[in-house]
């Protein structure tokens, strides 16, 4: 049985209507919709319209401010700290990235730490904002604590993704965007829905034993940092997740570690916060602050072309250049539409009914 | 049988004498020695005095310039590109990091890409230079191609390490410093010397099959990116290694990917270079360009303390905070001396004889 397919424009119109219904100013509703649906287009289904009702539930609990007064708290020529005023990360992060880009235009690079925000969709969206300006973009965020550091049984970190977008000339841009865990939480959600086992090394039980049950994190267990176990470098995945946590939140004044407010509305945020909301860290570097942009982009073409033609192991037809699968998916889905899981469709129908809309 | 132990001061004096013998100006010889021996102190034996004869062999082949004219090729308020003039990375990288720190002092952050350099010792040394200034330090470098991208059988990337150093107040600094492969090459060298097997997931054969032979990379095989295989996220380790390669060398104008000159002097650099030497990328961010330094460092104390007391899995007594093992090792070795592998001792004796010195 195939999942029902929806045209991008249909989903866009619906998401926009919902964001407006909860009180987002028009321009912010457009921005939030654009970030949210970019995930569906790029094939990162866990971060797209499937999350729309989750954002609405947070708004109902007064944990999302649909009309935030986002502002700069502090700045230097190449840095800023932004207070998201509890707004949607989908709106706050692009606001902050624009500041990073503007600073890069003036002094070569711009780095913006954000506090008092919420989940920002896919990290890649924000990093890619730098590309049309011939800049390199960087985006990271912390998230609900689901991940245990190496040797621990406590959930102290989020899946804390990092995205890096680097422009090329004739080749498409290099766009890496990945959770710093062995597997993204979205992949576990897919296995949960299908009632399938996870590979060992993705999750651990409440006692810290590797497990194949994708539901472990709901039963006191945890996700595992990239590397899977100490022998295969999970301490490096822990370093990465910690780095993202500190840049996003200790630098900005947001909550970090186990104090990060959970995304799900049925869990309350910790009663002893160490900062405000969740945090992001966004950066832009003007390529020609280092060397002429044309020269850089020609070399990026050489880099990408060389890796693209690398000899493969038997049974694989290509080396995947970061960003290729998502770009190809976007081309396909813009033409052929976006398949939605039936559970997501039900969820959106209920959401529509709630606001006297139709889905 | 225990390895013979040498006092730090003895090794320091010897390394300094060698760097002076090959023609390093006095201040550069001191700097190179300090970086090199920091690796031995911190327990990263593969990057310390064990490499001294390797640097000398590169100098003999005219691939290392012992008296380089290091200079800034291009700059903006927050960025610079440095030409290392084929100098020792041990000297070039600290020079570049000083520029990054100076720029951070003025405009909040400083980012320096370096070309025409050589191996720079441990990445952590350079990142940690930021700490006394209440700055966050970042250091990365590319290296001899030993690593195959996911799905490939070709060695196209180095072990490309990343280091991030973050100051705290009462707690020691957070210092992550790790190769972007499942296992650092130094760990494989140790297994080679002991004639022991490697865990599956560290290396692959020339056909791309996972192998336990630590010598695979010398027989046409390759090291594997962090993650070990596609199912466990090796494509993320590939993204990390690629990111380091591009920031270090495409941004600076150095060689990247398979064009990076090999560290071993018996292999010639590619005859069709795409840039100059190897590349590094160094950064410094002034903490108070984001929020007051005291506030930041107090929160770092909270972060570190919370992770330090995390409940552990049975059989483990603590969660390791990045930087702890190396700092503890340094305290121990400063007092009790540095053990050297007998092969390394033989190598240093031969080196000494070459220059009419005694070891």
Structure, explained:
The structure is a homodimer of 359-residue chains. With 359 residues, chain A is an alpha+beta fold. In chain A, strand 2 and strand 3 form a beta hairpin. In chain A, strands 2-3-4-11-5-6-7 form a seven-stranded mixed β-sheet. Chain A has a domain of 41 residues: Wheat Germ Agglutinin (Isolectin 2), domain 1. At the A-B interface, strand 4, strand 7, helix 7 and helix 8 of A face strand 4, strand 7, helix 7 and helix 8 of B.
At the fold tier of CATH, the topology name of the domain at 183-223 in chain A is Wheat Germ Agglutinin (Isolectin 2), domain 1
- What name goes with the CATH superfamily of the domain at 183-223 in chain A? Hypothetical oxidoreductase yiak, domain 3
* CATH architecture assignment of the domain at 183-223 in chain A: 2-Layer Sandwich
Question: What average pLDDT do the residues of chain A reach?
Answer: 97
- Detail the poorly predicted runs of chain A: none
* Residue fraction in strands of chain A: 15-25%
Dominant shape of chain A: globular
Give the terminus-to-terminus CA distance of chain A. Answer: 21 Å
**What is the name of the CATH class of the domain at 183-223 in chain A?**
Alpha Beta
Regarding quaternary structure, what we see is homodimer
Strands in their spatial order, largest beta sheet of chain A: 2-3-4-11-5-6-7
Largest interface: A-B, 86 and 86 residues
Helix content of chain A: 25-40%
Q: Largest sheet of chain A, if any?
A: 7 strands, mixed
Total beta-strand segments of chain A: 12
Cα-atom Rg of chain A, whole angstroms? Answer: 20 Å
The SSE string of chain A, one letter per element, is EHHHEEHEHEEEHEEEHEHHEH
Enumerate how many helices of chain A there are, as a single number: 10
Structural class of chain A: alpha+beta
């Amino acid at each position: 049985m195939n999942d029902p397919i929806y045209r991008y424009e249909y989903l866009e119109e619906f998401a926009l209507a919902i964001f407006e219904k909860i009180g987002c100013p028009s321009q912010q509703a457009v921005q939030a919709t654009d970030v949210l649906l970019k995930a569906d287009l790029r094939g990162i289904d866990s971060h797209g319209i499937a999350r729309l009702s989750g954002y609405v539930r947070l708004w109902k609990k007064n944990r999302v401010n649909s009309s935030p007064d986002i502002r700069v708290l502090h700045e230097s020529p190449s840095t800023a700290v932004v207070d998201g005023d509890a707004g949607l990360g989908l709106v706050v992060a692009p606001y902050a990235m624009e500041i990073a880009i503007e600073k890069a235009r003036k002094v070569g690079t711009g780095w913006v730490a954000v506090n008092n925000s919420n989940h920002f969709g896919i990290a890649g969206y924000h990093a890619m904002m730098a590309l049309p300006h011939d800049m390199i973009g960087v985006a990271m965020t912390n998230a609900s604590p689901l991940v245990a550091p190496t040797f621990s049984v406590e959930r102290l970190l989020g899946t804390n993704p990092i995205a890096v977008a680097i422009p090329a000339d004739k080749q498409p841009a290099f766009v890496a965007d990945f959770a710093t865990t062995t597997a993204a939480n979205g992949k576990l959600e897919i296995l949960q829905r299908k009632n399938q086992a996870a590979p060992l090394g993705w999750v651990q039980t409440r006692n810290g034993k590797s497990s194949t049950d994708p539901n472990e994190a709901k039963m006191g267990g945890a996700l595992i940092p990239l590397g899977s176990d100490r022998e295969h470098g999970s301490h490096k995945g822990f370093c990465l997740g910690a780095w993202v946590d500190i840049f996003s939140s200790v630098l900005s004044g947001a909550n970090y570690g186990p104090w990060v407010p959970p995304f799900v509305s049925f869990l309350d945020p910790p009663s002893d916060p160490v900062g405000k909301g969740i945090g992001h860290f966004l950066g832009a570097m003007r390529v020609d602050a280092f060397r002429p942009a044309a020269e850089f982009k020609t070399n990026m073409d050489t880099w990408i072309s060389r890796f693209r033609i690398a000899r493969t192991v038997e049974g694989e037809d290509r080396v995947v250049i970061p960003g290729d699968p998502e770009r190809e998916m976007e081309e396909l889905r813009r033409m052929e539409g976006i398949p939605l899981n039936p559970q997501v469709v039900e969820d959106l129908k209920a959401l529509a009914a709630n606001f006297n809309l139709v889905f």
